[in-house]
Amino acid sequence: MQEKEDNALGLLISTLQRFVSIKFNLQALVHVSTAYCNCDRPEVDEVIYSPPYDPEHIIHCMEWMDDDLVNTVTPKLIGNRPNTYTFTKALAESMLLKECGNLPVAIVRPSIILSCAREPEIGWLDNVNGPTVIIAATAKGFFRTILCHEDKKADLIPVDMVTNLTICVAWRTATTKSDGITVYNCSSGIQNPITWKQFVDCCFLNIRKHPLEDMVWYPGGTIRSNSLANSVCSTCMHFLPAHIIDILSRVFGKKPFMVNIQTKLSKASTFLKYFSTRQWHFNDDNTRELSSILSEDDKRIFLFDVREIHWPTYIESYILGVRQFIFKEHPSSLPLARKQLLNMWDIVLRVSRMLSHV
After folding, report:
1. Angle, to 10 degrees, between the axis of helix 84-99 and the axis of helix 55-64?
2. What are phi and psi of 21, to 5 degrees?
3. Which contiguous run of DSSP H or E holds residue 79?
4. Helix axes 5-22, 55-64, angle to 10 degrees
5. How far, in Å, are 5, 52, 84, 98, 350 from residue 10 at the CA level?
6. Using an 8 Å Cβ cutoff, are 85 and 3 in contact?
7. Is the peptide bond before 42 cis (omega within 30 degrees of 0)?
8. Which of 50, 76, 95, 149 is most deeply packed, by most CB within 10 A?
9. Which pLDDT tens digit goes with each residue over 65-95?
10. Would you state the pLDDT for residue 248?
11. Which residues, listed in sequence order, are joined to residue 108 by a DSSP beta bridge?
12. In what helix (H) or strand (E) does residue 80 lie, and over which residues does it extend?
């Protein structure tokens, strides 16, 4: 979610100050940014772009502005970017370029990070950032429509590949002195693309193959490219049932919860909409060149070649990871969950038949 601008910049200031104080004791520095720090550009090269405003000037202004004024100027500052996260990442890169001096520095820019492909465990993840919160809610059966351009590439990357690339970048930065800062875009869109439709369809397939326990409703949903249609469907499929569930909760003396959940999911889907309805081209020549100089053993140990990702297999492990590590459901519970899914499907068929005769 979008953090307050002053908090984001405050973190940036303190991080930079710590860097300046210790940089002379470092052999090299690798800064992990995001591929979307320049999301106002459709094509992003492995270079540091100048931000629209001077970072030091912005920081100076933030020191005397109150929260209300910060909130007022934030939309103007971030411009076409969707949130302060991408904006402050761009500022950080620019400040790093100015402050690094003679210290060897590199920047790694991952795209949308998902679960591990291999290490420390296949499918491992520990948060519901990005599309994972939507996938988790869909698996529970209470999220059924999202605004997305299904033909756009979903630029996804396993978290362990980001880690492996960062390790290799640190080695090369420390052992190969070069002028300036080298940037490594860490993304899959060029070498191993997958569309949002392919991703969502594969998720649905595996959500039903490896269902969760105690689903609210049979998992399903639709990608919609029309904003108005999606808003109407969201009201009917998300908020109307949520209000009904909360009314029933109050009747039975329980605390209402579903409207609050749907409100949070609506904010998450609005955040994701920016990335699922646009297309970027992240050039990754430096990343590929680094891979080419590694030994075969190092390529195997520190795998970050996205061409090695088999998307159907990876997405199945991702869904299993959501089940095991987010919902804490042991694989031994799958037979019972599958039985519950079949019972839920039987209810769906019965309700459909009843409605067809109305």
Report:
1. 120
2. -75, -25
3. none
4. 120
5. 8, 19, 12, 18, 56
6. yes
7. no
8. 95
9. 777 777 777 778 777 888 888 888 888 888 8
10. 92
11. 32, 184
12. none
